[in-house]
Design brief:
Structural class: alpha+beta
Order of helices and strands: EEEHEHHHEEEHHHEHEEHEE
Helix content: 25-40%
Shape: globular
CATH architecture of the largest domain: 2-Layer Sandwich
CATH class of the largest domain: Alpha Beta
Distance between the termini: 13 Å
Largest sheet: 8 strands, mixed
Number of helices: 9
Length: about 290
């Protein structure tokens, strides 16, 4: 038995850190949007017990530290009678350590695929509970679209999706960001400047996108070296970006454009610039996981 899925990346139109729980996890308020950039995840049964993971990108861990393996283990723990030998193949297009939830998207695809193959009776709420055990972004990656996320990311309010008339450019600098270290720098901020999350939420509900973009913000930009961001932001703004902002804990920047021509011109300029080896053009999408038949 086999299934092949698209695992979509996300961007953060807004990201604020609102506190820290006693267990060490941080609480957040976020506007999270799925985008067309995606990995391809194939799940197939195999005779050999356990989970074998393959990936076409060097440097991706292929052991139990990979979220895809964690997702399979969590699923079989919740439904132990279904434990099978699996081979999971990931064709990686989402950059790693980039603030785009690539690993979480792969984990969500594994959960979606295992339910579709072996346990279609598991409800969405039950699958989301399993997803939360795997990682804070995994429940959103399962749902997809545009959501306002609270708590550690598990409390999701679905919203109208960012219209496809807006073209997106994603640009990852030649560096990675460790999320744990980024949160530690957030904790050390003496006077953080918080984005207007509730105002932004109201604009998203009203689908007033042009009013939303000026309200967007990402607290992690305050703890990211500006030289990693400002060159990309300058190029995006010079090509008419309505919003040019970092996603997640970084360092990927994304730009929102009114026209595909402007987005393509920006992408070409960024590809010619030093220090931006990975540039993608895409659109918002209403799905976090898509099946390929």
């Amino acid at each position: 038995m086999q299934i092949t899925l698209r695992a979509h990346a996300k961007i953060n139109l807004l990201l604020d850190v609102t506190g820290r729980r006693a267990d060490g996890y941080h609480t957040t308020e976020m506007l999270m949007q799925s985008v067309g950039l995606c990995d391809t995840v194939t799940i197939a049964t195999q005779a050999q017990p356990g989970v074998a993971l393959q990936c076409d990108r060097p440097g991706i861990p292929l052991d139990q530290s990979n979220i895809a393996c964690k997702a399979a283990a969590a699923f079989f723990s919740a439904v132990p009678q279904l434990e099978l030998g699996l081979c999971i193949k990931i064709e990686k297009r989402i950059p790693a350590a980039a603030g785009l939830a690539g690993g979480s998207a792969d984990g969500a695809a594994v959960l979606h695929g295992l339910r579709a193959l072996f346990a279609p009776g598991i409800g969405d709420d039950a699958l989301a509970a399993i997803a939360l055990r795997v990682g804070a972004d995994v429940p959103f990656c399962l749902r997809g679209g545009l959501c306002f996320a609270e708590g550690v990311g598990e409390l999701l309010t679905p919203l109208p999706c960012l219209p496809v008339r807006y073209a997106l450019v994603l640009a990852k600098p030649a560096m990675g960001v460790a999320t744990g270290a980024a949160y530690a720098r957030i904790d050390a901020l003496p006077n953080p400047r918080h984005p207007a999350a509730r105002q932004a939420l109201a604009c998203a509900r009203a689908q007033d996108w042009e009013a939303l973009f000026p309200l967007c913000g990402n607290l992690f930009e305050q703890v990211t070296p500006p030289e990693a961001l400002e060159g990309i932001r300058k190029v995006m703004r010079s090509h008419g970006a309505l919003l040019a902002q970092m996603s997640g804990s970084g360092p990927t920047m994304f730009g929102v454009f009114r026209t595909e021509d402007a987005a393509n011109a920006c992408a070409e300029a960024l590809r010619r610039a030093d220090g931006t080896p990975e540039v993608f053009c895409c659109r918002a999408t209403e799905r976090g996981i898509g099946e390929i038949r």
